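Render this sequence as a predicted structure.
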Amino acid sequence: MAKSTYDEALRRLLVHEGGYTNHPSDPGGPTNFGITIHDYRKYVKPNASAADVRAMKLDQAKAIYRIKYWDAQRCDELPAGVDYSVFDYGVNSGIGRSGKVLRRVVGLPDNTSAVTDQVLEAVAKRDPRALIIAINDERLRFLKSLKTWPVFGAGWGRRVAEVRTFSLKLAEHKVVANVAASHPMPMEATPAKGVAPLPKGLQKVTTATPVATGGATAAALHESGHDPWTIVAVAGGFVLIAGIGWIAFHWWQQRKQHAPTPGLVPVPAIPGRAS
């Protein structure tokens, strides 16, 4: 897809993402224009609050989309339709997942999510329409596996269907302006991130429990007459354990988001197709 068509892809994506939301079942947390508070803190304001996210400017959101999702996945170099499917998937479920899925459907190892020159070469040997179908089929299977599917499933399913249909039209016609004119815009937003939710029980155990235990232990040492340095050292040790637990928890979460989908098979190459 040509660079000039990024605007059409983003225009459709923004309809799906909607405006400000902070749904308790959405693992993205406070979100505006589809940009989570975590991304806003990374790219705009490190200590941003929910109020800052609510006040986010559209141009700020567009800049983040271009850098983090479109450029990072080299969508300008992907075939028409494949680019839009990968872009929308990456926004909804993370580029760690969408990148690995793209690699798997072209038969490459998914030990990384990077869209490399090797990935682009493999994509060029496949039928774009088959890739679009495979990517969106996997996306729907993944979303249906999430515990939040009963809450957001209707919207997610509609979004995947619309992305698939428009992507296939792009792959067939390649003239974005003509396709956009003949294909209606999405009518309803689906404002929730299709990622594996954080298990609150595990998060509590990995962080709150060590901190609470450390506080109780420090209080007991104080009552026993131990010197302040010993108490500080013990309390600090439990805080360190909590920090390690937090890091381990988020590492586990990343692994969960990037895990392979059972049954996903590579799309066969087209004999004779130019690489």
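Summary. Residues 202-207, 249-257 have pLDDT under 50 and may be disordered. Residues 200-255 form one domain.
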